[in-house]
TrEMBL record:
It comes from the Bacteria. GO terms for molecular function: epoxyqueuosine reductase activity. It comes from Olleya marilimosa. The gene is queG. It is found in: Cytoplasm. Its cofactor is cob(II)alamin; [4Fe-4S] cluster. It is an enzyme of class 1 (oxidoreductase). Gene3D superfamilies: 3.30.70.20. TRNA binds at K222. This is Epoxyqueuosine reductase. It holds the Pfam family QueG_DUF1730. Residues 178-207 form the 4Fe-4S ferredoxin-type domain. Its EC number is 1.17.99.6. NCBIfam families: tRNA epoxyqueuosine(34) reductase QueG (TIGR00276).
Length: 308
């Protein structure tokens, strides 16, 4: 059986690479002991703001065996989204880099379907579920446990060779595999992300108050933006990349090779005035299959007006 475990692990990782994933790490499905008190504390301090879904399924969030019946392994996958070009007008309202192209949920789901199909075809009757940031799974904790990186002081996953501009996804399956070991933390004494956060959302190393984060305000918050935050958004209209942009490890980021993540041809050329005068028609054209649709036109307009 050991031989099979090794063989299956090698096959899965090779196929993940063929499908374009940056890397693939595997860990044993089970209770995330270290994460439990952290998550509880974070929720108790209301750092999730109005993201009430974070309170749901507490047990399942910490234990994939409660989420996926008979699960044995968590396969974590990274997919690069670092763009080769960014928005040209430095004074224009800014979009987080992950939202330049098509909605990553759909792009990654397709790849996970292919990987699942491959596993079933090559290995046999294996069942499980695929997750892309849409279920009670602690993506970053599993990726770190699977040796794909460490969780940085900005609470994002960091990898020495490639930084942090990538998506994380999982396949949780009922097959025993060979498991990867954890890598060490390489943040050292650096506090670049903490010092640079425009809204002081990183309250202490490794703790982000979600309710103070620009991404939360521009994407999750559905009501009026608080006047106390006026002038603190650093031109961000959707998401925020500040803590990643200043991180020394992101000097190693290389452009992705996924055509579906390339932006709409007009997007990067839009100047400040174009964004301020954006119409619903232009919004629909620019963001046809984009994650930006989550804010709706009215939400993006609210964010742009707030930056004036």
């Amino acid at each position: 059986m050991l031989n099979n475990k090794s063989k299956y692990t090698t096959q899965i990782k090779a196929e993940a690479k063929r499908l374009g994933f940056l890397s693939c790490g595997i860990s044993k499905a089970g209770f995330l002991e270290k994460e439990a008190p952290r998550l509880e504390n974070w929720l108790n301090k209301n750092m999730h703001g109005q993201m009430s879904y974070m309170q749901n399924h507490f047990d399942k969030r910490l234990d994939p065996t409660k989420l996926v019946e008979d699960s044995k392994s968590v396969i974590s996958l990274l997919l690069n989204y670092y763009p080769s070009e960014v928005q040209k007008d430095t004074k224009a309202p800014k979009l987080s880099k992950y939202a330049y192209g098509q909605d990553y949920h759909f792009v990654i789901k397709e790849k996970l379907k292919e990987l699942t199909h491959f596993i079933q075809q090559e290995i046999g009757d294996v069942s499980g579920r695929a997750f892309v940031d849409s279920a009670p799974v602690l993506d970053k904790a599993w990726a770190a446990k699977s040796g794909l990186g460490w969780i940085g002081k900005h609470s994002n996953l960091l990898t020495q060779q490639v930084g942090s501009f990538y998506f994380i996804a999982e396949l949780i399956i009922d097959l025993d595999l060979e498991y990867d070991s954890i890598v060490t933390d390489h943040c050292g004494t650096c506090t670049a992300c903490i010092d640079a956060c425009p809204t002081q959302a990183i309250t202490e190393p490794y703790v982000v108050d979600g309710s103070k984060c620009i991404s939360y305000f521009t994407i999750e918050l559905k009501e009026q933006l608080p006047t106390t935050m006026k002038g603190k958004f650093d031109h961000w209209m959707f998401g925020c990349d500040v803590c990643q942009d200043v991180c020394p490890w992101n000097k190693f980021s290389k452009p992705h090779s996924e055509p579906l993540f390339n932006p709409h041809p007009d997007l990067l050329d839009m100047v400040k005035k174009d964004w301020e005068e954006i119409t619903e028609e232009v919004f629909k054209n620019l963001f046809k299959k984009s994650a930006v649709k989550r804010t709706k036109f009215s939400g993006l307009k609210r964010n742009i007006d707030f930056l004036k």
